[in-house]
Here is the input.
Amino acid sequence: MILTSIKEAAARYPQNIAIQMKIGGHYEHHTYEELLVRIASTASDLAALGIAPGDRVILLAENRPEWIVAYLSVVSLGAVIVPLDAQITVKEAELLIVNSGAKAAFVSLATRKMIPRDSTVKVIFFDPDEGLFFPELLLAHPETKLPVTPSGDAPAALLYTSGTTGDPKGVMLSHGNLASNAASLTELDILGPSDNMLCLLPLHHTYPALACMLLPLGTGTTITILNSLKGPDITSCMQETGVSIMLGVPQLFSGLRRAIFDEIDKRPSPLRATIKALLILNGFLRKTVNINLGKSIFSKVHKQFGTALRVFVSGGARLDPDIYTDMFNLGFTVIEGYGLTETSPVCTFNPLTKPKAGSIGIPIPGVEIKIVNPDKNGQGEIAVRGPNVMLGYYHKPQETAEVLQEEWFYTGDLGYCDQDGYFFVTGRSKEIIVLPNGKNIFPEELEKYYMQAPAIKELCLLHTRRGLEAAVVPDFDYLRKMRLANSRDVINFALADLARNLPPYKRINGFKIISESLPVTRLGKLKRKLVANLYLESEERTEKQPTAPDLSLLTTPVAQKFLACLAPFSAQKEIAPDDNLEIDLGLDSLARVELIVSLEKSFGISLPDTFGSELFTVRDAVLRLDALLSSGQVISAGQVRMSWGDILRREPDEEMQAKLAFSAGLTAMAFRYLLKGLLKLTFFAYNRLSVHGLENLPDNGPFVLAPNHLSLIDGPVIVAALPWRVASRTFSLGTTDYFGGSFMSGIAKLIQVIPVDMEARLQGALQLSAQVLQKGNILCVFPEGGRSRDGKIKEFKKGVGIIARELNIPLVPVAIKGAYEAFAIGYNFPRPAKITVTIGKPFLPGNLDYEGIAKKLQQEVAKLL
Here is the structure.
């Protein structure tokens, strides 16, 4: 029954190319006429080997023309095809061979090892090896007539959806299931004999097997196979063969879109703004009057995909509406469908002439869909009925009965139908996180929201005993570009910023940095159980097996000296080249400063202040040091680690010192006095500023003022609160985000703000701070390192403890209340909330260590609050 439409297509288009693939630098073609002969011959071979209707035959290989021939020959014989993932493990393969009771298996050279040598399964090789060689079998039983077509109720395919457990679940699809699904999609008139479909996805999944094999072969379409997901390989193939339809998963389209928009972002600002305006314009024209100027306006982008491309088809997972919109505005047509293995697989498809962003479309012909037990918002479980619904789960009657009820298949997906009849998927019922307060979290929706942060590449939400947490993979390319070495702090602030706009139950309570990609299926869906295991085990370091080049990298004199300098900063004994200095080895920004100074002494060289922010891995450090030493400088003997006292006593470089102005003329002093008066008047009048504890301020400097940090107005509030005798000698640290550039740095010098890049030039910032205090002045620092995202006090960093202890400087705790309510992150204009400043009693660091000083200071500020 599956072969009926293919035979009809072959009769109409015998010389059309059915399948093509690039092998050895050129494309090998197989016409429809040749394809039928190969299918018939292979079916005859299998029959001669004793394969009878109903027997199971495994297909375990990468995509190739032989894969398609083997699949179709098995089902034409009435046997049951069992496609397995070519990347499956040996253990998984053994389990599925036993569970399926397979009699034969098609394998490639790469997958031969998956079949045990002592197995009774007949192994047929696509590549030369001992045993049955596929091309020789074709010659052994030449045949031109296909076997008698099996009935529609006969099983055709056994597809495993969970081969990684000890109890695999096999989906049984009949000839009628697959044939009906192909026929329904044919009615949509998406492709025809003049089309060329690019097959990128692994055919063992039902989605590409139906959409990239059964459907196109039933319409006379050409299938072009490409076993690469690399952008240049895809575009080259599309240009060379004239691909008109490309099937993909959201992950693939996300990558294509990112590559396009990364190029746009490299353009000068005026051109970038023009391009974005044109994108909006083209999107508007396409929606309102169905005019697509994208191919002309963005011709360079379109030419990359060849001149014949008509449509992108997305499936396998939900497509982000933003990806759809951006591709649509560029002039591409992107169509999204929906289905499951149990539904053969397609259930819905967006109309080619009227797709809707974010929707999975409308039911395909012959298929019914309903929302079961909808809530007040119309959301409930999606159920499907039609000739495409599976026979059941292999040898699992109980599991079958749970999902198949009165001909309806209950998908486990949640969704709703809008007023136009378009369906939307909102998540999996099994993946919903139910919080103790009864609130429901839809992970995919919330994950997308948090992944707006550019420093986050991947994110998976988890529900732990501590509440809602996240496994986060940083975007190291972005961090390296922005010279942000402390990914944890960057991501923490980003998550907190985004959480401000969410109700409390949707806020992430904790996260762990994962340095490698999260586990996903071949179609890009998160394997949440594996992510949860990875999350729990993330604190246990997985030993990396270095390659020979890695080993040689760590044995060079430069590497050995670097490792000697690194050793005091990390408890990790076995260090690999790709260990991340922060995530794997635990170096924070302060430890990086110590490491850099140690390297300077050990190597006898002077390193740039930005050196620490340029390093992410051990490999980065070794290669960068190699480059700096290539000028021929001699590597000095020994490894020296400087103390923080030594670091703070060193003079900052001239560029850093230029940021300070210890002496000021009458004009500058008058400006500061007037500014202070204006700030005092403003805050007292608008925010009813009240100040307590002024008597606790030391009569003379130096000392450190250490307030909590709630808002951008905290610095001005402190200036307004202090008496002139103290304010006139107070210097503050400010970020270059606000005080960068020649104009703003000039303003900063005038108002005694020291603009520093705390990430790239932390060492210089600490040395400038020490210089301010050593000259008898007062330093105002915010020990939290950044503004509070929720109005609560955060952990104080140990940097303030280093300065206080090494210089033996008094610390004055200061508590600010009301500034968050007055001007929290996200406010466009300050509000008239009451602000209170309370100054506590100073204390000396004594015998406390750096962390102890920071902790005590935090406690003192908390008491004042």
